[in-house]
Amino acid sequence: MRALSNVDFLSLWEAGHRLHSLDRGVLAARALLAEPGEESVADWPLGRRNEVLAQFHNQYFGAALQGWTECERCGEKLEFTVDCRSLIERQQGRSEQPVIVGDSVFRVPTSRDLARVAGEPDASSAAMRLAEFCRIDGTSDGEASWSRKEMEELSEKMSEADPLAEIMLSFACPACEAMREQTLDLPEFLWAELEAFVKRILNEIHILASCYGWSEAEILALSEGRRAIYVQMVQA
Known about the structure:
Order of helices and strands: HHHEEHEEHHHEEHHH
Low-confidence stretches: none
Number of helices: 10
Shape: globular
Radius of gyration: 21 Å
Strand content: 5-15%
Number of strands: 6
Helix content: 40-55%
Largest sheet: 2 strands, antiparallel
Mean pLDDT: 92
């Protein structure tokens, strides 16, 4: 994993701020690779991508993923904290073996697979198409039909093979006691933190450039500590 400078963060944000969450996840994971090589991050299993994104957050924004959601029944604000280190450890249980359901063999999904079904409005149809795209024992044309039992078995075995592919959060509302589950979109969550960090850097650049006439490159060449002191002196 390579270390990212403030210039790297600005370039990453600029390249991805108009993109879909899936593309942002791929960009952020690729940014940490010391040698990207020929292998595309878009073709990584989702768990591998999420593992790198958890490492990204842990390295630059801390181990704690802190956020909130709302109770669907009463609207109560529900806060949560997820430890990135526990996510990274969970991925240690991944399997390199293909997933077998009945007479069919599957590989685990990738970001590219999810992109192919992102526009599907019906969740069941999207899951069916995704299963066919991941099928490796025959032609994958997206037209196969699977029973509900087969889809449930496939989902369970996919989760076992790639534990970090989907991060489910469980909530118990303290106000109405309703229970709910929600998927944590790790690329989108990470991007929100990255964007907040970048906006802080840009604000510091604006303040110091306006006061001292320094260029962006000159300001970014300062350490974060020195830059913060200059900003404090200007604001004082």
